[in-house]
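Q: Can I see a sequence and its folded structure?
A: Here is a first one.
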Amino acid sequence: MPIQSFIPPERTLMGPGPSDVSPRVLSALARPTIGHLDPKFIEMMDEVKSLLQYAFQTKNTYTMAISAPGSAGMEACFVNLVTPDDTVVVCQNGVFGARMIENVVRIGAKVVVVEGEWGKAVDPEALEEALKQTPEASFVAFVHAETSTGALSDCKTLCEIARKYNCLTIVDAVTSLGGVELRVDDWGIDAVYSGSQKCLSCVPGLSPISFSDKAAEIIKNRDSSVQSWFLDQSLVMGYWSGQGKRSYHHTAPVNSLYALHESLVMLQNEGLENSWARHQAQHKKLAAGLESLGLEFIVPEGERLPQLNLVYIPEGVDDAKVRQFLLTEYNLEIGAGLGKFAGTAWRIGLMGHTARNENVLVCLAALKEALAQ
């Protein structure tokens, strides 16, 4: 029998990502494909850059979208800035901090790890103590919103400490961009990366990224080539910079960038601070409902990500059976625990287009029924 067209089911995505994509963004994907050097496409790229500068709250010239997921954005930051001669202090309080460490190790640089408790924010005092003991450090790297645990760290304070010790910062904002306060310029972030599929509610596969002038100077004045040709930002900058003739680097994901443009227009129309407030308001409704079901939050209240809620699985409850019930009976996806929380926690997402009243109500009703069974 010949293979037929794939028609996916309609799901409500309340896991750690991807999030629900709005009909407007899906519609943008279906617009006619044009060349990635077409003047009209270049005009749209300039708008994407401007919209990303708004989302990141930055005036950084080198703000763009990498043609790959957030993990590529992470690697791009590290391989372009860090050399084997550097020392990097990495704060680890979850899975994605560990991936930062892996990037530093693969570059061959020295890594100093500030071990944090999973499910808690990064401890600023622990970072400062590590920097006192590591005067040779050039960079501080940390995850603003740890997707594996739902913990939100104090990005502003961590950046202030890094500057105090003359270190540049590399920040993972994959789950924070558009969902919680993030101010790249005001907080002095030097390199930041995110993902299209979280609070921006775009299709997966793109990584918004931004470099400060200091970081850009390092990239432009390297003594050695970046170990990854595709992620070498000195080559890509000529395509996204908007200065003079665009240089060809690779064929851009044209239709995916249409979708990102539309999602960023929606964020602009809603207003960035309104988006932050909406995520917080929906989180409060969900949190109250989860606690009424007897579910216990893992992350302390003052350190929780509103867009990613980590709760303990009650004793005697089968993790996989509950998630399968939600998927089968309600077309609802929630996330399993990751790393140290595998099998003991659920990650319930409220990202972007997903953060709506009707989704909170359906999730709570479905969980109530599943737990009763």
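Q: Show me another, different protein.
A: A second, unrelated one:
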Amino acid sequence: MQTRQLGRTDLHITPIGFGAWAIGGEWRFGWGPQDDAESVAAIRQAVSRGMNWIDTAPAYGLGHSEDVVARALADIPRAERPYVFTKCSLVWGEDRIVTHNLSSASLRREVEDSLRRLQVEAIDLYQIHWPRWQAASEPSPGSVEEAWHTLAELKQQGKLRHIGVSNFTVEDLKTAEAIAPVASLQPPYSMLRRAIEAEVLPYCLQTNIGVLVYSPMQSGLLTGAMTRERIEGLAASDWRRHNKEFQEPQLTANLALVAVLRGIGARHGRSPGEVAIAWTLRQPVVTAAIVGGRSASQVDGVVGAADVRLSTEELAEIETALPRG
């Protein structure tokens, strides 16, 4: 794959990176049961197919995703290893309840824990997972300002090579930028979730902040493999069972959109999911897309998105097919 420069950093990354959310296994926001051997195979396949970065987070499986990433990369020569990106701010205790914490002391512990789990001396890109946590019933410790000062200090110490953010608004970005440069933003973006087009993407373009979009296939809904029967059979611990896009009345319209993507993909010899990913990459400001994979075959089904170039007519066809409202 060709590479693109991530914002103002010296990182040149492939348009598609491996997303390690689902391989974390079962937790409150998990995707149901997952086999670690299949996860390791998926990561190694992603690397062999040319992806040169992996995005994970401590919260994914409460440390498990980072452990699996380390296991998958252990036998790969250091010079050939992909960049590893991870995050901070979501923490948990013995009760396994996830809470939000941006205090300096908590972040410093998180960095040390991630370095240990990932078995690395420095983290290539370290991101604040959330500026605030909607699941919190009361204000979280710390603040964006305190957190960003802390990450800037840890970067100077060499423990973090680059620092970025996730799920930030433009105002959050401005707050952080006043303290130290923001390497990148990781926002949700897909055909069914386009809120960042109004303000966030234009601001990132103006300020040269790299953009790593997540859930470009709307958490698997736009892959072409998601049927009504498969949705009904999702594990009870799979968070998608409670997501409105996987339920009526949205589901019927979304599956109709997938049928259109299937037709467009056939012209390119690609899957509906690859068309959905390519649609996000059409934006010049989008550096790359995070694409999850739970098996080697799933990885093989998405890598072709980097080569898809949608025509003006195909983009208009998609726009017409998008569910209204």
